[in-house]
């Protein structure tokens, strides 16, 4: 009979070893679950997906481990599993982290262990995100209404664009042809109201526009996400031919640094305050504002530069501005104007100040000056 306490001590020693001390799938520190067949240590959330793969999952702290299971865990471990199941992950494929969207983590686990997409063996048919061309139907939110309708989307690496059609009759041409150059995709399940909700953001005539889409299939929406990343990566390889893959991968897509409501007044600071939805995009150094969280087009943008060229961010106490219901202020000073925003709670004010200062403290890159000029020329 297995010595329960002895086996538990062995496993608790194994999980402290380098490689095992973080979740095999999302990198969360201190994993306390074991996926027995695969021989990997995982966190609580990832353990749920492993359980759905019909593999035994046990708690290191609560469950009984047989001798043969302990020996199997000793002979395997996270590093050996990665060498097999992550042998050939494409440089553009998004590897989810601890705080990422649930559907991304679930599909990462299924792609690794269930579909074995990264073992280096040729797959037929190949995964859709590897072909340079992808098409299919997605549910898309209407521009003015909250109704979602099915629309055909076509993604092309050769043309570096994403198209969608409003009607089934493709002879009339696409409703929109979107350049991949400045496109971003990020999962927004809470905002869109669907666990597979994806926000696609792009530039059009010096304005930022959003598409909100989803698919009922988790695998399909994550395939779309990584197909977009693949085409973006191919574009970046042509735009920055000397760039290293690991550096370019950081520029493919990003989550926004901060989102939420603030109240905003006009340039004279005497206008009525209006509630607006703000998005801080740290990569483009842009603070965008919309009438609501699911608007298709921004109402305006504030560029966040550095202190050395006349930008600053600080707490603000309201004086004479009229109509503001919220009292926790944020002031953004630019070379051409002072912007006043009001937050409902002090905690939100603190979060906005920290996020804005994070962008403010980062040195300007050459392309940032182009972005600054584009914002300035819009006024």
From TrEMBL:
GO molecular function: GTPase activator activity; phosphatidylinositol bisphosphate binding; phosphatidylinositol-3,4,5-trisphosphate binding; zinc ion binding
Listed InterPro entries: Arf-GAP_dual-PH_domain (IPR052589), ARFGAP/RecO (IPR037278), ArfGAP_dom (IPR001164), ArfGAP_dom_sf (IPR038508), PH-like_dom_sf (IPR011993), PH1_ADAP (IPR037849), PH_domain (IPR001849)
Origin superkingdom: Eukaryota
One example of a Gene Ontology biological process annotation: heart development
Metal-binding in keyword set: yes
Subcellular localization(s) per the UniProt record: Cytoplasm
SMART domains: ArfGap, PH
Domain Arf-GAP residues, every copy: 8-126
Keywords noted in UniProt: Cytoplasm, GTPase activation, Metal-binding, Repeat, Zinc, Zinc-finger
Cellular component aspect of the GO annotation: cytoplasm; plasma membrane
Gene3D superfamilies per UniProt: Arf GTPase activating protein, Pleckstrin-homology domain (PH domain)/Phosphotyrosine-binding domain (PTB)
PROSITE patterns the UniProt entry points to: ARFGAP, PH_DOMAIN
Keyword Protease included in the entry's annotation: no
Primary location recorded for the protein, binned into one broad class: cytoplasm
Domain PH, chain residue ranges per copy: 131-233, 255-361
Name the record gives this protein: Arf-GAP with dual PH domain-containing protein 2-like
Organism name: Salarias fasciatus (Jewelled blenny)
